[in-house]
Write a structure and sequence with these properties.
Helix content: 40-55%
Number of strands: 8
Number of helices: 7
Order of helices and strands: HHHHEEEEEEHEHEH
Distance between the termini: 92 Å
CATH architecture of one domain: Beta Barrel
CATH class of one domain: Mainly Beta
Radius of gyration: 36 Å
Largest sheet: 8 strands, mixed
Mean pLDDT: 89
CATH superfamily of one domain: L,D-transpeptidase catalytic domain-like
Strand order of the largest sheet: 3-2-1-8-4-5-6-7
Shape: elongated
Length: about 280
């Protein structure tokens, strides 16, 4: 049997192991010293956390600057390559006498390649350019086969009645404006309407032609886009905003352009060239 003395001796030994030593030390310490210790500890911890946060912010900012520099370098390289491609195409296709400016071709190629990257084009063989810096009395629409690098068509194309008479110089994305809209389009499906075989197009440039579908802007043939009208009235006919083509070319051009090809309407507008979501994407 355990005697009372032995029992209390065991309890005393057990207490030596159970009571934590730091607690015993704390009991011996001055409360003011403990308060000073904890205040200093938390101040140091806050300073360390602040320094770490500042370093993290600097690292993130540096990484962001590096990524931006990489994007700028990649864009510069891309534009240089496209400029070289435009120059080669311009020479190989002998476009100097066609009326198409090499810089306009370069802009068209930038948009074409950007839309390719977005997987927005299905009919990748065809690139169409309407140069609205030229008189409507000139054949200012160019249809290029990107695979064979050949100019397939060069024909007349009309602009909106409120964009100007012989020359287009005012453009809008607004409904009921009866103006042409600048920028890149992707062609869609065909249908038969009041102008016969017609081709729907979607505007891809935010703020410049993005309301094309809402405005019922389509490619269609028109009898007033012809040399007969030009000779009779001295000026080509105009539309409510649609890029109308000669009626006799409708059955040739529209099947060629349909189902996802790139269609570009150009004018040297600084506002457009600076803010186009496609050219500056």
């Amino acid at each position: 049997m355990t005697t009372p003395v032995q029992y209390f001796g065991k309890l005393l030994c057990l207490s030596l192991f159970v009571v934590p030593a730091p607690l015993e030390e704390a009991k011996k310490s001055n409360p003011l010293e403990l308060l000073s210790f904890y205040t200093t500890y938390h101040a140091d911890a806050a300073a360390i956390n602040k320094t770490a946060a500042a370093r993290t912010a600097k690292a993130k900012a540096a990484a962001s600057r590096f990524a931006a520099a990489q994007r700028a370098a990649a864009r510069k390289a891309e534009l240089k390559l496209i400029g070289m491609e435009a120059n080669i195409m311009f020479e190989e296709m002998q476009l100097a006498d066609s009326g198409l400016n090499e810089k306009v071709l370069e802009y068209a190629l930038i948009g074409y390649h950007r839309l390719l990257k977005k997987h927005a084009l299905r009919n990748t063989d065809i690139l169409s350019i309407c140069d609205f810096s030229q008189s409507s009395s000139l054949k200012r629409m160019y249809v290029i086969d990107m695979r064979t690098r050949k100019l397939l068509y060069r024909n007349y194309v009309a602009h909106g009645i409120s964009s100007g008479e012989e020359f287009a110089n005012s453009f809008s994305n607004a409904p009921e404006s009866h103006k042409s809209s600048l920028g890149f389009y992707v062609t869609r499906s065909t249908y038969f309407g009041e102008n016969g075989l017609s081709l729907r197009i979607d505007g891809m440039d935010r703020g410049f032609n993005s309301l094309a579908s809402e405005r019922n802007i389509v490619i269609h043939g028109a009898p007033y886009v012809s040399e007969r009208i030009l000779h009779k009235y001295g000026v080509m006919g105009t539309t409510f905003g649609c890029p109308a083509i000669p009626e006799e070319l409708t059955n040739q051009l529209i099947p060629l352009l349909k189902d996802g090809s790139c269609f570009f309407i150009y004018y040297p507008s600084q506002n457009y060239l600076t803010h186009s979501s496609i050219l500056n994407g």
